[in-house]
Amino acid sequence: MSLVPACLAVLCLAAVNGCGGGSSPSIQHPPPVVAPPGGSISEISGTVTSVNNGPILGATVRFGSQSAASTQYGAYIIPNVMIPAGQSSIVNIVTATATIKGQAWSGQNQVELINGNPITSNVQVVLSPTNSQGSIIGVVLDSAGNRVSGARVFASIGPTFPAGHPDQLFFTNLASFNTTTRSDGSFTIPSLPSANSYTVTASLAGRINATTVGTVNVLASSSTQLTLTLSNPSGSSSVATPNGLTAQTITAPLSPTRSPGDASGFLNVIRRIVQSKRGLLTHHAAPSQKVLLHRSLTRSTPAGSLIETDLFWDYVQIDNLYGYDIVRATTISPANFTSIATVRDPQADRFADNDPILTPDHLYYYSIARLDTINFPTGVGGESSPVQPPVSVDPLGPLTLIAPSSGTVTAATPVFSWNAVNRANLYKVLVYDQFPTLQDSSDPNGIAPVWSADFSGTNATYGGTALISGHTYYWAVLGQDDVASAFTISALQTFVAP
Hints:
Layout: E1 40-50, E2 60-63, E3 66-69, E4 75-83, E5 89-100, E6 103-114, E7 119-120, E8 125-129, E9 133-141, E10 152-157, E11 177-180, E12 186-193, E13 195-203, E14 210-218, E15 223-229, E16 246-253, H1 266-277, E17 291-292, E18 305-312, E19 321-329, E20 338-343, E21 350-353, E22 364-372, E23 391-393, E24 401-403, E25 408-409, E26 415-418, E27 426-432, E28 451-455, E29 459-461, E30 472-480, E31 486-489, E32 493-496
Parallel strand pairs: 1-7, 1-8, 9-15, 16-31, 25-32
Antiparallel strand pairs: 1-4, 2-3, 2-5, 5-6, 6-8, 9-12, 10-11, 10-13, 13-14, 16-18, 17-20, 18-21, 19-20, 19-22, 22-23, 24-26, 26-29, 27-28, 27-30, 30-31, 30-32
């Protein structure tokens, strides 16, 4: 059994300036700021990616007057955002810019910060070449033709059927582009990558959604106009139970990489390998409207590691769908499910839980329920579908490389070794002849491994073509459990051929 597909054509990480050397930005946490009475302090975190979900390194991310730089995984954190007293929330735009191969890229998305909620995560910003972008503009009306202010408008590329999965619909972009209608009901979603298959949904609590499915064209340097009409409900309202819920967990090094000799961009490469293997690559993430209802304040994950559980489910266009409720439990009998997030997006089909309390070799159960836009927010049970039958994950522990250590001059035929991980029954060794930032066999800049092979033990002898004397190579090991639901990835290390 192979851990990764033979062809990595779908692994198309964005190539960015600086990926091949020098230092990389890292997330810095300044001293905490004290909130004013009645107000609160929130932290915004998320990722900066290309439209194909590739992480972008060194993008400048801005929220108001505050800014941060994205790390090699595309991650960023903007801490100490003030929500003033007397405001239940603030709504603003997160923007990001980068220079990629000498070309200006940009993107933006809207985020709402809730007073009293210390963390707003999964705020995704999708970048594309600025000169190729267009926009969607329009107005949202009610059934009487009146303009509606405060409605949310979501846009995603697709949906489409991924190869080999004709029964599943997915969107291309990682998260919805979104905005809120102005006082006159008008809206603008700018900085959109050019595409001819956008789905656009207008949504407002108490109304039936208005959706245009997969037919909205966005052209460079032009604006596409839409009129979306929300209708009034008639009779009782409910939503069906979601289908297709599945989960995977990945344990990865936590520390940001500061040189190409480490794991710059590599974790997202592995994440995409895993998702591609399981037919999950094109699910997009929970969007910037995700409001965390619970977040652990303690860390159980081993020092230097991050555990992320990714949930995936089937997208279905439903006229009264408001979003999703995400619940988690540590026992199933009796069930102790706790709501950990509300996903406010009728186009969402993925959620990432990276709560620091997640611990290796502990079983976690997850389920989801759909939220009904007509009844929301009258309380859990009153507005939601029945929960999906739960799925479980059991995270693996960290995987550490033993030999060769980074920079070591090896024998002509290197021997690789790593620590055994409890419950990992298969390991894949990946060797590259250059820093593996962009992996896409259909891209001229794509980087594929020069050798990869699966092993059941904790050592392997190189079996690829002859290595070039004096050349620096990169290697890492990916482990999985026996049901391919838990993965662990090492850092990326170098060695030099003799």
